[in-house]
Every structure is written in C-alpha cells, then in structure tokens.
Input
Amino acid sequence: MSKRYAFLLDMDKCIGCRGCAMACKNFNQLQPDMVWRQVYPLDESIYPHRDRAFLSLSCNHCDNPACLAACPTCSYEKRPDGIVVHHQETCIGCSNCIRSCPYGAPRFNKAEKHAEKCSLCHERLDAGLQPACVQACLTGALQLIDLNAPLPGGLVQYPAGYPNMPRLNPSTRFILPRAPRLARR
Amino acid sequence: MNYEFPLVFFTVLTQLAVGIALAAAWKERRADGIRPGDNPNRLWQGAFAAAAAGLLASLFHLADPLRAFTALSNVGHSWLSREGLVFGVFAVLLLARCLVQARWLSLLAALAGVVGLVMQGLTYAPVSMPAINNSLPFFLFALAALILGSSFGQEKENSLVSLQRLSLIALLLLLLAVPCVWTSGNALMRATAAAWKASVPFWGGVALLALGLALSFLRRNATVQGLVLLCGILLTRMTFFGDTLHTAGQIGKPF
Output
C-alpha cells in the first residue's frame, strides 16, 4: 500500500513559538508578507486556562482537496503519497482556490501574482529529509506520519477551533492539549 | 474590505444579459409579444453587450488575464471552468442571434443563459463559506436575472411588470430573511449575519430595490427604474462577495 503523508500536531507539546512557521518561510524563500504555515492561538472559550494552546496549521493535504476541484487551470496535483502540490507556473491568479479552501491554506502572492501553498516539502521528502517545519520544531510537537501505517491511539481529526469538513477529509491529525496541572503553593 | 468588484460586475452584467435574453426569447415565442415599432434585435444586441462587458470585467479579477483561456482546462472538475465555458458559449450564441434571426437560436441562447446561472450558483457556493454553501447564491442570481431582464428587456410598454414586481418582492424577502435564518446557525453563520446587517452597501441595496418596487407602481420612467434596480443589485452583490465570512478567519475560535 502506498504512503499517505500527513502532519501530526501534538497540541499538548506545542508552545506556540512559531519556529515551524519561520523555518517554512526560510526554507521556501517566501515573500515578506507570505506564510504557508500559521500558528493560531486557541480561543479561551475552547481552552479556558491561563496557559495557552495553539493550532499550527499549513495545508492539510486533504483526501478530496477543495483547491484541486476548484482550480480552473489544473494547477493542483495530488501525488500518490497524498501530497497536494500547486504548480505556480500555470496559476492565473483567479483566487478560486483561496475562496474554496476552508483552512486558508492557499495564499495570494501579490508580488508574483499567483496563489501558493505548502507543498509538504516534497523535494526534501524525496531526498529522505523531514519537512522544514517538522525539523525545526523545538518540542517535537509537529511530526510527519503515514496515515496508511498503524497510528498511535488518541489522535483527533477535528479538534475544536478547526473546521469540520468530512467531505474533504483533511489528513492532519492532532493530539489534544491536557488541562494544565495546578501547582499547590 | 475586499468587495471583489470584478466579480460583482461580472455576475451582475452576465445576469443582466441572461435576463434580457429570456425576455427577448419570451417575446418571440408569444405572437403578441412584439408590438409595432419594436425592434427585437435591439434586445439581443443589448444582451450581447452586457454579456461581453461582464466577461471583460471578469478578466480584471485575474492576476494574469492574458492566460484567461487556460481557465477552461478543468471543465471536468471545476465549476469556475464550467461557468466560463457556458458563458463563453452564451456570448457566442447571443452574437449569432444578433446576426441571424432564427427562433431556435433565440431559444438556445436563452437556455445557455439559464445553464450559466446554475453554474454561477454552484461556483460561488464554496464549502469554505457555510452561510452560502447552499442554493442561496443560485436563487439570488436567478432573481437578479429576472428583475434586470424584466427591467431592461422591454421596449415601449412594460409587459413584464408583474414578473418584475414578484421577483423584486421575492428578492427583498430573501435578502431580509437570510441573515435572520443565519442567526440560528453556527458561530460563523451568526458572524456572517452580523456582518451583512452592519453592511452599508447591503442596506443601500435593499433601499434601492424597495425604491425600484415603489417606482414600478408609480409607473415612472422605466429607464430610471431599471438603473435604480441595477444599482441596488450591484450594492447587495458587493455585500455577498465582501461580507460573507470564510472559515479560515475563524480558526482557533468556536465554530
């Protein structure tokens, strides 16, 4: 069976340092106003503690990507290993993928006038390396997993604060944050 | 606020073209539809001009308009490709109808316009916008086509005034009811309802549509009434594109 690569975010380990987003921006040489990975703090109504919890998200490389279905120029391709790749050279900048993706993964590059998004560092993967964001994660919160291999228990597909889109079947998995332990004074 | 003006003008002008084409085809079907002094070809020329202007406006939405033709390469999956293809065919049929007077060509052009409206309704109902990920865009677009068609698709005497009033009342009720329905939905739909209710173009559009309805009863200058209605629809369309919220803006918050 072929692989289906996906990100696993352990929200209990993520400290919101944004190192993953910086590594992504650095490795992919993004424009100053562009990000392919964004760290969203969880709202207090979802995680009502003094400690914060975060969602570090980029493209979810969905099973049925909305971007791929919406793109009028066939600029999106889904590889056999599940990675959704965007070909910037054929993009005409209609922004239909940006309107269609519920996770806000494709972004519009104003300088180069096309959409772009995370490619799961497929060039690095093909060379046997980890994606830049995974390699940069200080706490090991962000990992690369294969959804077609046996997975550890306790993984969640749709945590609170993350759009629930079963039709698209996003591949990112999460480990929910525990409530912080109170230290007795 | 990004109101996506090229899309506003593209959708409204193509709906104007579909409405005029439907009105012209309807007049041709009815033996008494064409009155002495009428020039039915003028309607088809008007419909073609509106469709061409709409398609031209759509190019301004693209970052690379010179490669706009490549937008037809994903007809198998993309509603946007299908919409572009159908409205392209519609414009060609309108031009053909301007050059050749044939009833079958009129019917074919009107049919292509209706199919284009369906495609448009599906293109602008993305899964990322739960408030409009339903049949609402199609009904908004179809009512806009009927209103504009019954306003600009008549020559001397407005034989379509009943259809115009009915469509106007339906559109006004829909625009006022929809934000109220969204308030019973999830957090994103409630936020969209609040954004629409706080939108100046939305209330401006509703006011102009109501004024257009009043003018239809006063039987004032039909051109002025048509322009009032066109402006009303343009303003409400700005709200549709600019104030409908996207799930990506809500990540990290409750849905």
In short: The interface with chain A takes residues 61-65, 67-68, 70-74, 77-81, 84, 123, 126-129, 246-255 of chain B (CB under 8 Å). DSSP finds nine helices and no strands in chain B.
